[in-house]
Amino acid sequence: MHSLTERSPGPIRPSYALPVTTAATAATVALTAIAPVTWGTTYAVTTELLPPGHPMFAALMRALPAGLLGLAITRVLPRGVWWWRAAVLGGLNIGVLFPLLFLAAERLPGGVAATLGATQPLLVAGLAIVVLHDRPTVWRWMWGVIGVAGVGLVVLGPNARLDAVGVLAGLGGTAAMAGGVVLTKRWGRPAGVGPLTLAGWQLTAGGLLLLPLTLTFEGVPQRIDAGAAGGYLWLGSMGGLIAYTLWFRGIGRLPVGASAPLVLLSPLVATVVGLALGESLSLPQSAGFALALAALLAAQLSSPKALMRGVRVR
Q: Which of 6, 33, 139, 266 has the greatest number of CB atoms lying within 10 Å of its CB?
Protein backbone atom coordinates (compact mmCIF):
# COMPACT_ATOMS: atom_id res chain seq x y z
CA MET A 1 0.00 0.00 0.00
CA HIS A 2 1.46 3.34 -0.97
CA SER A 3 0.75 6.95 -0.06
CA LEU A 4 -0.77 9.45 -2.40
CA THR A 5 1.59 12.17 -3.61
CA GLU A 6 -0.65 14.32 -5.78
CA ARG A 7 -2.14 17.52 -4.44
CA SER A 8 -5.85 18.22 -4.31
CA PRO A 9 -7.16 19.98 -7.39
CA GLY A 10 -9.20 22.24 -5.11
CA PRO A 11 -12.91 22.67 -4.58
CA ILE A 12 -15.42 21.77 -7.22
CA ARG A 13 -18.01 24.51 -7.53
CA PRO A 14 -21.55 23.35 -8.24
CA SER A 15 -23.78 24.72 -10.94
CA TYR A 16 -27.50 24.65 -10.18
CA ALA A 17 -28.47 25.55 -13.72
CA LEU A 18 -26.93 22.57 -15.47
CA PRO A 19 -29.66 20.50 -17.19
CA VAL A 20 -29.53 16.82 -17.88
CA THR A 21 -29.25 16.92 -21.67
CA THR A 22 -26.67 14.32 -22.64
CA ALA A 23 -26.69 10.55 -22.59
CA ALA A 24 -23.49 10.57 -20.51
CA THR A 25 -25.06 12.77 -17.83
CA ALA A 26 -28.22 10.68 -17.82
CA ALA A 27 -26.08 7.57 -17.35
CA THR A 28 -24.28 9.26 -14.45
CA VAL A 29 -27.62 10.07 -12.81
CA ALA A 30 -28.78 6.47 -13.28
CA LEU A 31 -25.60 5.01 -11.78
CA THR A 32 -25.66 7.47 -8.89
CA ALA A 33 -29.29 6.57 -8.22
CA ILE A 34 -28.26 2.97 -7.48
CA ALA A 35 -26.87 4.18 -4.15
CA PRO A 36 -30.09 5.60 -2.63
CA VAL A 37 -32.07 2.72 -4.17
CA THR A 38 -29.84 0.31 -2.26
CA TRP A 39 -30.03 2.39 0.92
CA GLY A 40 -33.81 2.15 0.74
CA THR A 41 -33.52 -1.55 1.59
CA THR A 42 -31.69 -0.79 4.85
CA TYR A 43 -34.87 -0.41 6.87
CA ALA A 44 -36.34 -3.78 5.87
CA VAL A 45 -33.00 -5.56 6.31
CA THR A 46 -32.61 -4.04 9.78
CA THR A 47 -36.06 -5.03 11.04
CA GLU A 48 -36.34 -8.39 9.28
CA LEU A 49 -32.81 -9.82 9.53
CA LEU A 50 -30.56 -8.08 12.04
CA PRO A 51 -30.54 -8.74 15.80
CA PRO A 52 -32.39 -5.88 17.56
CA GLY A 53 -30.78 -3.48 19.99
CA HIS A 54 -27.38 -3.26 18.27
CA PRO A 55 -27.41 -0.22 15.92
CA MET A 56 -23.74 0.59 16.54
CA PHE A 57 -22.63 -2.97 15.81
CA ALA A 58 -24.68 -2.97 12.60
CA ALA A 59 -23.04 0.32 11.61
CA LEU A 60 -19.60 -1.11 12.38
CA MET A 61 -20.22 -4.23 10.31
CA ARG A 62 -21.47 -2.13 7.41
CA ALA A 63 -18.46 0.21 7.47
CA LEU A 64 -15.15 -1.28 8.60
CA PRO A 65 -14.93 -4.55 6.60
CA ALA A 66 -16.03 -2.74 3.43
CA GLY A 67 -13.57 0.08 4.04
CA LEU A 68 -10.65 -2.27 4.60
CA LEU A 69 -11.60 -4.15 1.43
CA GLY A 70 -11.58 -0.85 -0.47
CA LEU A 71 -8.10 -0.05 0.86
CA ALA A 72 -6.86 -3.52 -0.07
CA ILE A 73 -8.16 -3.12 -3.63
CA THR A 74 -6.86 0.39 -4.28
CA ARG A 75 -3.72 0.29 -2.11
CA VAL A 76 -3.71 4.08 -1.78
CA LEU A 77 -3.47 5.99 1.50
CA PRO A 78 -4.28 9.66 2.07
CA ARG A 79 -1.50 12.22 2.26
CA GLY A 80 -1.22 15.69 3.76
CA VAL A 81 -4.53 17.44 4.39
CA TRP A 82 -6.42 14.42 3.15
CA TRP A 83 -5.76 12.53 6.37
CA TRP A 84 -7.97 14.91 8.34
CA ARG A 85 -10.35 15.53 5.45
CA ALA A 86 -10.97 11.79 5.06
CA ALA A 87 -11.50 11.56 8.82
CA VAL A 88 -14.04 14.41 8.78
CA LEU A 89 -15.93 13.03 5.78
CA GLY A 90 -15.81 9.50 7.18
CA GLY A 91 -17.10 10.76 10.49
CA LEU A 92 -20.06 12.57 8.90
CA ASN A 93 -20.97 10.14 6.09
CA ILE A 94 -20.28 6.94 8.02
CA GLY A 95 -19.40 7.29 11.72
CA VAL A 96 -22.34 9.53 12.62
CA LEU A 97 -24.82 8.58 9.89
CA PHE A 98 -24.74 4.80 10.16
CA PRO A 99 -25.55 4.27 13.88
CA LEU A 100 -28.23 6.98 13.80
CA LEU A 101 -29.70 5.41 10.67
CA PHE A 102 -29.93 1.97 12.29
CA LEU A 103 -31.30 3.46 15.51
CA ALA A 104 -34.04 5.25 13.54
CA ALA A 105 -34.76 2.06 11.59
CA GLU A 106 -35.22 0.12 14.85
CA ARG A 107 -37.49 2.67 16.51
CA LEU A 108 -39.60 3.89 13.56
CA PRO A 109 -41.52 2.25 10.72
CA GLY A 110 -39.24 2.01 7.70
CA GLY A 111 -41.18 4.53 5.64
CA VAL A 112 -41.28 7.09 8.44
CA ALA A 113 -37.54 6.74 9.07
CA ALA A 114 -36.83 7.10 5.36
CA THR A 115 -39.02 10.21 5.10
CA LEU A 116 -36.75 12.03 7.52
CA GLY A 117 -33.92 11.37 5.07
CA ALA A 118 -35.97 12.96 2.30
CA THR A 119 -35.34 16.36 3.91
CA GLN A 120 -31.69 16.09 2.86
CA PRO A 121 -32.06 18.04 -0.44
CA LEU A 122 -33.31 21.05 1.51
CA LEU A 123 -30.49 20.76 4.05
CA VAL A 124 -27.93 20.41 1.26
CA ALA A 125 -29.33 23.48 -0.49
CA GLY A 126 -29.09 25.50 2.74
CA LEU A 127 -25.55 24.36 3.52
CA ALA A 128 -24.47 25.04 -0.07
CA ILE A 129 -25.30 28.71 0.46
CA VAL A 130 -23.01 28.91 3.50
CA VAL A 131 -20.18 26.56 2.50
CA LEU A 132 -20.12 26.78 -1.30
CA HIS A 133 -21.49 30.34 -1.62
CA ASP A 134 -23.85 29.03 -4.25
CA ARG A 135 -27.51 29.94 -4.13
CA PRO A 136 -30.00 27.33 -5.37
CA THR A 137 -32.70 28.46 -7.73
CA VAL A 138 -36.32 28.83 -6.68
CA TRP A 139 -37.00 25.92 -9.04
CA ARG A 140 -34.88 23.52 -6.97
CA TRP A 141 -36.20 24.81 -3.64
CA MET A 142 -39.76 24.33 -4.90
CA TRP A 143 -39.26 20.77 -6.08
CA GLY A 144 -37.31 19.90 -2.94
CA VAL A 145 -40.27 20.93 -0.78
CA ILE A 146 -42.72 19.16 -3.10
CA GLY A 147 -40.64 15.98 -2.96
CA VAL A 148 -40.64 15.95 0.84
CA ALA A 149 -44.38 16.60 0.87
CA GLY A 150 -44.96 13.74 -1.58
CA VAL A 151 -42.94 11.30 0.48
CA GLY A 152 -44.74 12.52 3.58
CA LEU A 153 -48.09 11.62 2.00
CA VAL A 154 -46.77 8.12 1.34
CA VAL A 155 -45.50 7.28 4.80
CA LEU A 156 -46.90 9.70 7.37
CA GLY A 157 -50.47 8.51 7.69
CA PRO A 158 -52.72 8.65 10.77
CA ASN A 159 -51.37 5.30 11.95
CA ALA A 160 -47.69 6.30 11.76
CA ARG A 161 -45.86 5.43 14.98
CA LEU A 162 -43.56 8.30 15.95
CA ASP A 163 -40.83 7.81 18.54
CA ALA A 164 -38.96 10.93 19.70
CA VAL A 165 -35.57 9.22 19.90
CA GLY A 166 -36.08 7.66 16.47
CA VAL A 167 -37.10 10.99 14.93
CA LEU A 168 -34.08 12.79 16.41
CA ALA A 169 -31.80 10.00 15.23
CA GLY A 170 -33.21 10.16 11.70
CA LEU A 171 -32.87 13.94 11.50
CA GLY A 172 -29.37 13.84 12.98
CA GLY A 173 -28.19 11.25 10.48
CA THR A 174 -29.71 13.22 7.62
CA ALA A 175 -27.97 16.41 8.73
CA ALA A 176 -24.63 14.59 9.02
CA MET A 177 -24.88 13.19 5.49
CA ALA A 178 -25.98 16.57 4.11
CA GLY A 179 -22.84 18.09 5.59
CA GLY A 180 -20.77 15.28 4.08
CA VAL A 181 -22.28 15.84 0.63
CA VAL A 182 -21.50 19.56 0.67
CA LEU A 183 -17.94 19.12 1.98
CA THR A 184 -17.29 16.35 -0.57
CA LYS A 185 -18.35 18.77 -3.29
CA ARG A 186 -16.20 21.57 -1.86
CA TRP A 187 -13.03 19.53 -1.39
CA GLY A 188 -13.39 17.34 -4.47
CA ARG A 189 -10.85 14.50 -4.70
CA PRO A 190 -7.04 14.56 -4.87
CA ALA A 191 -5.62 14.18 -8.35
CA GLY A 192 -5.41 10.55 -9.36
CA VAL A 193 -7.85 9.36 -6.68
CA GLY A 194 -10.98 7.56 -7.84
CA PRO A 195 -14.33 7.21 -6.08
CA LEU A 196 -13.49 3.68 -4.88
CA THR A 197 -10.45 5.01 -3.05
CA LEU A 198 -12.47 7.83 -1.49
CA ALA A 199 -15.15 5.35 -0.40
CA GLY A 200 -12.49 3.10 1.14
CA TRP A 201 -10.97 6.00 3.07
CA GLN A 202 -14.29 7.15 4.48
CA LEU A 203 -15.69 3.73 5.33
CA THR A 204 -12.44 2.84 7.12
CA ALA A 205 -12.32 6.16 8.99
CA GLY A 206 -15.94 5.84 10.05
CA GLY A 207 -15.46 2.20 11.01
CA LEU A 208 -12.41 2.98 13.14
CA LEU A 209 -14.42 5.69 14.90
CA LEU A 210 -17.22 3.22 15.60
CA LEU A 211 -15.02 0.31 16.75
CA PRO A 212 -14.11 1.50 20.30
CA LEU A 213 -17.55 3.04 20.82
CA THR A 214 -19.29 -0.20 19.85
CA LEU A 215 -17.11 -2.37 22.06
CA THR A 216 -17.45 0.03 24.99
CA PHE A 217 -21.16 0.83 24.95
CA GLU A 218 -22.91 -1.96 23.06
CA GLY A 219 -20.82 -5.05 22.46
CA VAL A 220 -21.47 -7.94 20.07
CA PRO A 221 -24.90 -9.58 19.69
CA GLN A 222 -25.16 -12.88 21.51
CA ARG A 223 -26.34 -14.65 18.37
CA ILE A 224 -25.77 -13.91 14.70
CA ASP A 225 -27.71 -16.34 12.53
CA ALA A 226 -27.43 -16.93 8.79
CA GLY A 227 -30.05 -14.28 8.03
CA ALA A 228 -28.20 -11.65 10.05
CA ALA A 229 -24.90 -12.60 8.41
CA GLY A 230 -26.52 -12.18 5.00
CA GLY A 231 -27.95 -8.83 6.08
CA TYR A 232 -24.55 -7.56 7.21
CA LEU A 233 -23.01 -8.78 3.95
CA TRP A 234 -25.62 -6.98 1.85
CA LEU A 235 -25.31 -3.74 3.83
CA GLY A 236 -21.51 -3.78 3.70
CA SER A 237 -21.18 -4.66 0.01
CA MET A 238 -24.08 -3.22 -1.98
CA GLY A 239 -25.13 -0.73 0.70
CA GLY A 240 -21.55 0.15 1.64
CA LEU A 241 -18.55 -0.06 -0.67
CA ILE A 242 -20.41 -0.34 -4.00
CA ALA A 243 -23.11 2.22 -3.19
CA TYR A 244 -20.69 4.80 -1.81
CA THR A 245 -18.32 4.37 -4.74
CA LEU A 246 -21.18 5.16 -7.12
CA TRP A 247 -22.39 7.97 -4.88
CA PHE A 248 -19.01 9.73 -4.67
CA ARG A 249 -18.54 9.29 -8.41
CA GLY A 250 -21.89 10.97 -9.01
CA ILE A 251 -21.27 13.80 -6.54
CA GLY A 252 -18.04 14.60 -8.35
CA ARG A 253 -19.73 14.78 -11.75
CA LEU A 254 -23.20 16.16 -11.09
CA PRO A 255 -24.28 19.55 -9.72
CA VAL A 256 -24.98 19.24 -6.01
CA GLY A 257 -28.53 20.45 -6.66
CA ALA A 258 -29.08 17.56 -9.06
CA SER A 259 -27.49 14.79 -6.98
CA ALA A 260 -29.09 15.66 -3.63
CA PRO A 261 -32.72 15.04 -4.74
CA LEU A 262 -31.78 11.48 -5.68
CA VAL A 263 -32.00 10.59 -1.97
CA LEU A 264 -35.80 10.76 -2.43
CA LEU A 265 -35.42 7.33 -4.02
CA SER A 266 -34.53 5.85 -0.65
CA PRO A 267 -37.94 6.36 1.04
CA LEU A 268 -39.71 5.42 -2.17
CA VAL A 269 -37.82 2.13 -2.34
CA ALA A 270 -38.51 1.58 1.36
CA THR A 271 -42.20 1.99 0.58
CA VAL A 272 -42.06 -0.46 -2.34
CA VAL A 273 -40.27 -3.01 -0.15
CA GLY A 274 -42.98 -2.50 2.47
CA LEU A 275 -45.61 -3.26 -0.16
CA ALA A 276 -43.78 -6.47 -1.00
CA LEU A 277 -43.89 -7.38 2.69
CA GLY A 278 -47.66 -7.01 2.80
CA GLU A 279 -48.30 -3.29 3.31
CA SER A 280 -50.76 -1.37 1.12
CA LEU A 281 -51.12 2.18 -0.23
CA SER A 282 -54.21 4.33 0.10
CA LEU A 283 -55.25 6.81 -2.59
CA PRO A 284 -53.46 9.77 -0.87
CA GLN A 285 -50.35 7.63 -0.48
CA SER A 286 -50.43 6.70 -4.16
CA ALA A 287 -50.75 10.39 -5.07
CA GLY A 288 -47.80 11.18 -2.82
CA PHE A 289 -45.73 8.48 -4.47
CA ALA A 290 -46.40 10.00 -7.90
CA LEU A 291 -45.68 13.51 -6.57
CA ALA A 292 -42.33 12.47 -5.13
CA LEU A 293 -41.31 10.81 -8.39
CA ALA A 294 -42.29 13.95 -10.32
CA ALA A 295 -40.20 16.09 -7.97
CA LEU A 296 -37.24 13.74 -8.34
CA LEU A 297 -37.36 13.99 -12.14
CA ALA A 298 -38.03 17.74 -12.23
CA ALA A 299 -35.05 18.45 -9.97
CA GLN A 300 -32.77 17.00 -12.65
CA LEU A 301 -33.93 19.59 -15.21
CA SER A 302 -33.41 23.30 -15.63
CA SER A 303 -36.31 25.62 -14.89
CA PRO A 304 -38.42 26.77 -17.87
CA LYS A 305 -36.97 30.28 -17.46
CA ALA A 306 -33.39 28.93 -17.71
CA LEU A 307 -34.31 26.88 -20.77
CA MET A 308 -35.80 29.97 -22.45
CA ARG A 309 -32.60 31.90 -21.74
CA GLY A 310 -30.63 29.11 -23.38
CA VAL A 311 -32.89 29.21 -26.45
CA ARG A 312 -32.45 32.97 -26.77
CA VAL A 313 -28.64 32.65 -26.47
CA ARG A 314 -28.60 30.14 -29.33
A: 266
